[in-house]
Amino acid sequence: MEQQTVRIFVGFDSKEVVAYHVLAQSIIEKSSIPVEFSPIVLSNLGGLFTRERNALQSTEFSFSRFLTPYLSGYQGWSIFMDCDMLMRTDIAELWALRDDRYAAMCVKHDYQPKIETKFLGQTQTKYEKKNWSSFILFNNDKCRALTPDFVNTATGLQLHQFKWLENDDLIGELPVTWNYLVNEYDYREDARNVHFTDGGPYFDEYKNDDYAEEWFAARERMLFVQQRA
């Protein structure tokens, strides 16, 4: 049976709460198909996620993102997204790209970060497959290796470099426009989903970056209330 609802898991960080809500707004207002949101909030996970915070983590969801297949009951497909993103098109276009040959699908970035520190002074780590895991289409049944125990005990590179798969042939490639890295890549009008990977426009030092005006406009629409005339 065809999966009718797009399940979207979004990393939630208490240092950038507004990011989650604006991303959800940008998806909702453009989607032509039903969507369902699950914020991955550490305090909501009970005893599921027990690993200690790593000094190199720039967000609270650096590792908990890999619980997405488990939280989906290893059924159907789910999307994981970092919160510091903005959807600029109908997510149905992404949903149509699902390919059962793969266990996971993502943008296969090949770049060296231009900066040494990210938002709030976090170290900009450099490693192979960097940012692949910031936007993933999970074919959940083929990701059963991602048990809570494995997510809690595996190394960061095992998780972020997809070592939980038998080989890289199980990783499908999405067009770069689905995880378009602001500041790392030049402005593109056709970017479908932009990723403020260095820091979102809600941080003062990034408020004039590419696509920031669109983000602020989405924030205003998120806050909309129709008052009594």
Automatic annotation (TrEMBL):
The source's superkingdom equals Bacteria
* Name of this protein: Glycosyltransferase
